[in-house]
Amino acid sequence: MAVGKDCPENTAKLVQKYAPYATFIREMTFRSLDSHSLTTAFRQISELRKRARMKEIEEKEEANLVKQDKLVRTKNERVPRLSDLTMRPVFAGRKTQGNLESHTNGLRFISTRGEIVDIMYANVKHAIFQPCENEIMVLIHFHLKNPIMVGKKKQQDIQFFTEVIDASQAVDAGKRSMYDPDEMDDEQRERQLKKRLNEAFKDFARKVEGVARKNGYSLEFDIPYRDLSFIGNPHKEMVSIQPTLNCLCNLTETPFFVVDLSDIDHVHFERVTFMSKAFDMVLVNKDFTKQPYRIDMIANEEKDSIQEWLTDMEISYTEGPMNLNWKQIMSHVLGDDRFYMDTEEDEVTAKEAGWEFLRMFGRDEADDEEGSEEESGYSEVSEEESEEDADSADEDFDTDEDDESEFDGDEDLEEQGMDWEDMEREAAADDRRKKRDGEEDVRPAKRKRRR
Known about the structure:
- The chain has helices spanning 9-18, 35-63, 181-214, 303-312, 326-334, 360-414, 420-450; strands at residues 81-91, 94-102, 106-111, 116-120, 124-130, 137-150, 153-163, 221-222, 230-232, 239-243, 247-250, 257-260, 264-270, 278-285, 293-299, 317-319.
- By secondary structure, it is of the alpha+beta class.
- Residues 362-370, 372-384, 397-416 and 445-451 have low confidence and may be disordered.
C-alpha cells in the first residue's frame, strides 16, 4: 500500500505491518454543537503530535551518540572555576549563563536555570584559548571527538566566553571629544578589564591542564596565531580565520568553523588568475566520502603567506583558474584504488599520481620548458645560418669597398698635376666664360625688340 512522502515514519511502519488484513481511514469529519470543545480537542491533538515528533527527532539524534562517562566531582580540594560565563550553543534559544568548573575527569557547566553540561577530558579533541585583543570577547572553546547533547540537539563544538564590551553599545547623540576625561576613563577601564579577563581565563586554562594531567588525561590549550590570520567566507559571511597548532578556526562568529589539520589531505586554490582580486580555498578531507571544506573570497594578498604556512605544516597544495565540481572529483577519487600511484593497473601506462591532475599551472610550466628547449635547438641552427649570412655579407661589403677604393684612386691620379691655386684659377676662368656666353645670348634678343 503506497503512502505519501509527508507521511510520518511510524504511520508508514504501521501501514506496512497491518496493510494485508486491515482497513485504514484516511479522513474523518467531526461536528459538534459546542465549537469550544472542538477547538480544545484540536489543540490537544496538535500538541500530542508535536511531542511525538520531537521525541522521534530526539531518539534519532541520540541513536548515534557515543555514551560518555559520568562526571566524578572533586570534593577534597578547591575546584578551578570561572564565573559569569555565557555558553554557545544555547539551550532552547535562550541566552545561557552560568559557571564552569574543572573536576576529576571532566568539566561541568551549571547555568543559572539549573541546566547542566558535562565535558569529559577524554572526549576533548582540541581545546582553544583565545584572548581578547581586537575582539569583543575572551573565550575558551572545546572541539569534541564525539558529539554530545545540548538541549535536544547534537553539538560537537562547545564554547564559553565573556564579553569585554557590549556587542551593541549605545552611542550618545552629541559628539564627544577625544580629550574628554570621561571617555579616556572608559578606555582605561576597558583596557584594564581586558587584561584582567585575559589573565583569569589563561590561569583557568593552566589549572585545567594541571588537573587533567594529575588524573592521567592529556589536555593542552592552543592559542591562535594572529599574525597568520586572514579574512574569508567559510559559511555565509566574511569572518577572520586563524590557524592554531592543530587546526584552522573561526570562533568569534556562529556557526563555528573548526578544521582539524590532521584530517586534511590536500588544499586546492580556485580562481587564481591575474584578473581576479580574490580566490577560494578548498580543503580536501582524508576521508574521501566527506565533501571538502571551503573558504571563499580570500584576498590575493594572503595567498603567499597561506602557502608558506601550508608548506610549514607539510600539507600539499595546488592552484587553478576555475571552480571545480568537487562532488564529481571526490566520487572519481574514491573509486580509484591506485590514486596515489603513477601507473595504471597494468603498471606500465603512466598517469598522474595523487592530486597532480589539479596542478594546472605546473603542467603549463613543464610545457613551456619543453618548448624552450625546442626553441633553443632552433636558435642554434638559426645562429649558424645567420653567421654564414654575415660572413657572405662581409665579403660582399669588402669587394664593394675594393671597387670604390680603385675608383677613388683613378680620380686621385687624374688630379695629381694640379694644386689648389691652379684649381681656383681654372674655376674662375670657367665662371667668366659662362658669364660671357650668357651676355651674348641676351644681346640679340634686345636688338629684335628695337626693330
